[in-house]
Write a structure and sequence with these properties.
Blueprint (H helix, E strand, L loop, with lengths): L1 E3 L1 H8 L4 H16 L3 E4 H13 L5 H11 L3 E3 L4 H13 L3 H12 L4 E3 L8 E2 L2 E4 L4
Parallel strand pairs: 1-2, 1-4, 2-3, 4-6
Antiparallel strand pairs: 5-6
């Protein structure tokens, strides 16, 4: 199973980079059609924040996108992810919120995470980072 990071969703609506936008849309379409992908509430929250703040999208447009993304399996945040993320941060020296995504991915049974925020090919607690934009 593959976990998808928020940057994939952000690129899917970002008009500044057409190649990344194309790749991101292909990933999201595959995720909607194939139930072998998952995201967490954190991904949706990060997407909303970046889209409103950096892409100047309207609240209505962000809501519309999130409604589409809800066709992908969304795992709910769990309290134990915080402690697991702290352990991951300490072990790998990465940002806390990236560690939290890895905690979500590993707990959800994912073997890879699509993101450009982690070292491509690096394995974190059994979850391999894959940069689809490289």
């Amino acid at each position: 199973m593959t976990f998808i990071d928020s940057n994939v969703f952000v690129y899917s609506v970002d008009k500044r980079n057409t190649e990344k936008r194309r790749i991101a849309r292909e990933i999201i379409a595959a995720a909607i059609d194939n139930h072998d992908f998952t995201i967490s509430q954190q991904v949706l929250n990060e997407f909303a924040n970046v889209s409103l703040k950096k892409l100047s999208m309207t609240v209505g447009d962000v809501r519309e996108c999130i409604a589409e993304f809800l066709n992908i399996d969304v795992v709910e945040q769990r309290l134990d992810w915080t402690c697991k993320a702290l352990d991951i941060k300490e072990k790998y020296g990465i940002q806390f919120y990236d560690a939290l995504l890895i905690a979500a991915a590993s707990t959800s049974g994912c073997n890879e995470i699509m993101t450009e925020d982690l070292a491509d090919g690096q394995v974190y607690c059994g979850v391999t980072a894959v940069n689809p934009f490289k």
